[in-house]
Amino acid sequence: MHVGGITLDLNWFLQFIFTLFIFALGALYLLKNTASKYFEVDANFDPDQPMPSIPTPTPIDPDLSTCAVCSNPASKKCSRCKSVRYCTSACQQVHWNAGHKTKCKVNSAQTASTKPFSGVALVPASGTSKIIKKPRKVLFPYDEFVKLFNWEKPGFPPCGLLNCGNSCFGNVVLQCLVCTRPLVAYLLEKGHRKECTRNDWCFLCEFQTLVERSCQSLQPFSPINILSRLPNIGGNLGYGRQEDAHEFMRFAIDTMQSVCLDEFGGEKAVDHSSQETTLIQHIFGGHLQSQVICTNCNKISNQYENMMDLTVEIHGDASSLEECLDQFTVKEWLHGENMYKCDGCNDYVKAWKRLTIRSAPNILTIGLKRFQSGRFGKLNKRVSFPETLDLTPYMSEDGDDTNVYKLYAVVVHVDMLNASFFGHYICYTKDFCGNWYRIDDCKVMRVELEEVLSQGAYMLLYSRVSARPSCLRTSGTQGKDEQKAMKAEVEYCPKEQIECVAGKETICSPGHSGSLSLNGSLHSEIPRCEVESSTGMNTDVVHGHEDGDMVRFKSNSSVSKEVSFCENESVFPD
After folding, report:
1. CA distance 87 to 93
2. CA distance linking residue 296 with residue 480, whole number of Å
3. What is the pLDDT of residue 58?
4. Structure confidence by residue, pLDDT tens digits, 397-437
5. Higher pLDDT residue, 314 or 9?
6. CA torsion sign, 334 to 336 to 337 to 341?
7. Which of 99, 230, 466, 502 could form a disulfide with 237 if both were Cys (CB 3.0 to 4.6 A apart)?
8. Mind spelling out the 3-state secondary structure of 305-372?
9. What distance in Å separates the CA atoms of residue 14 and residue 20, rounded to the nearest whole number?
10. Distance (Å) of CA 41 to CA 36, 52, 170
């Protein structure tokens, strides 16, 4: 075909016209559907007829409403649905039997479903809908905790969790908590929901649901109800982002502690010493002791602080967990710019300092400080760890066989080229029957203990062989009256007590000190009696002999969400 001296292919031309026609129809259909969302399309309007005016609603006087049965004026309404009125009780009975009892249920359900949804808050709301319990000295009886700790039911094998997008860090922590015997025993035997006082989202309620589903489900499921609420757990955590598993574990434990305190009116309503008697403190809580000895007057200063976990250095020649704990509890020489302000000498002097464990927790969480070279470096050195751990050498006083622990969970960070800014988390957990499993999100595989002990661990979870004899409130502490009396005395010890033992206590650099976790930061310098720790805990420094007759300290187990992780850089896995 020739058009204006140009030769055109007829078939190609017809196909082009047909294609344009199809595109035009599609565009018209799309435009119509879009417009129908905002305008009334294809309405039949009569151009000769004026647009009807919108009638103004007339206010209805409730006293002039009519009865739903006889249409007479009625002032009484249904006490359940509040939507219908009656003039007499007889009319209400007739209407109820005529079928209103079914509609009334529907209306009440609809009314309940119209409750506005509260968005994600950075801090969990503290509003309560149930009666708040009266605070007491011991919030959760320790004898009941011991029963939970010795829970003898066989439990259940782990169930995989789906990856919700960069959520492997949360999955491994949830799996470790699911195999923590006293916590699971409490949620399955007693339960938290009926005790919960929060109106909105609650981590412990959602975790109870996850535990119940884990013991019943045979297929992996999504923990999105928890992971989508990360800002409620930790202020700097975000859904969909790569986060640090150890950091998430700390925030999760602290959030559960806050939930327990809310049952008694919150942190401000509960005495500091009683805050250490919650279920979460019975499980994860312990005490650290920082002892400083003045080399001039030999005065001893002891500082106690609550701990929820330990973070140990793995640098240097340390190749085993025991050697890392030796580094954590080694004596440190305070001198130079890091000299100690002694109250007895009233001057800055050289002194010895040592961190030890005063009261070991029932569940011990240890973090290996692999990410200390910034975001782009990771220490991948081999650090061996035992299945059975004895904490007696690292205690403030000689312990007994109750300080023996058994390994039950290991968190591993798998990386590429020793990078800390990306990677993947997996974990190994032991069920209550003693079987070990390798969990990689939704993949669960049975393994042997030898494979577990050969891993490059990032976090280790140990459980006591037998529960601690008493709770933190009564374990080697005294009351306020004794504290005042102790403060009035100045005690000294002979010089022989401050000499280092060869092979055990060495002189360290001023910058080296035991790195404590988020829930208990002990500083190298203790120049005042009243010390404000980095976790917001008020701690009294007291003086006395080395025999352990020390006084009670004020502790606040609820940790501020604004924490500087300058010593333990977060790792961001896939």
Report:
1. 11
2. 30
3. 41
4. 765 567 999 999 999 998 766 655 678 999 999 999 999 99
5. 314
6. positive
7. 230
8. EEECCEEEECCCCCCEHHHHHHHHHCCEEECHHHCEEECCCCEEECEEEEEEEEECCCEEEEEEECCC
9. 10
10. 6, 18, 50
- CA nearest to 215, candidates 431, 403, 415, 383: 431
Nearest to 574 by CA among 123, 244, 319: 244
Catalytic residue among 159, 424, 427, 543: 424
Is residue 280 predicted with pLDDT exceeding 70?
Answer: yes
The Cα diameter of the chain in Å comes to 117
pLDDT in tens, 131-149: 688 888 899 999 999 999 9
Concerning whether 424 is annotated as a catalytic residue, the answer is yes
**How far is residue 91 CA from its own chain's centroid?**
56
Using alpha carbons only, give the angle 406, 410, 416 rounded to the nearest 5 degrees.
155
Strand order across the beta sheet in which 286-294 lies: 332-334, 351-359, 286-294, 300-307, 538-543, 530-532
Q: How confident is the model at residue 7 (pLDDT cuts 50, 70, 90)?
A: low
Instruction: Report pLDDT for 542.
Output: 38
Q: What is the DSSP string of 277-301?
A: GSHHHHHH-EEEEEEEEETTT-BEE
Write down the catalytic residue from 87, 104, 164, 168: 168
Which two structure tokens, joined as six digits, stand for 101? 């009892």
Between strands 310-313 and 363-369, the pairing is: parallel
Q: Is the pTM of this model over 0.90?
A: no
Of 316 and 307, which is predicted with more confidence?
A: 307
Please determine, for residue 40, whether its predicted confidence score (pLDDT) is greater than 70.
Answer: no
Alpha helical stretches, state H, 57-141: 89-95, 101-113
- Rounded to an integer, the average pLDDT of 272-285 is 93
What does DSSP say about strands 286-294 and 300-307: parallel, antiparallel, or unpaired?
A: antiparallel
User: Is the separation of the CB atoms in 367 and 309 below 8 Å?
Assistant: yes
Distance CA 372, CA 420 (A): 10
Q: Which residues of 8-43 are buried (b: 16+ CB within 10 A; e: fewer)?
A: eeeeeeeeeeeeeeeeeeeeeeeeeeeeeeeeeeee
Strand partners, 299: 492
For residue 195, the tally of other CB atoms under 10 A from its CB is 15
State residue 71 phi and psi, 5-degree precision: 65, 10
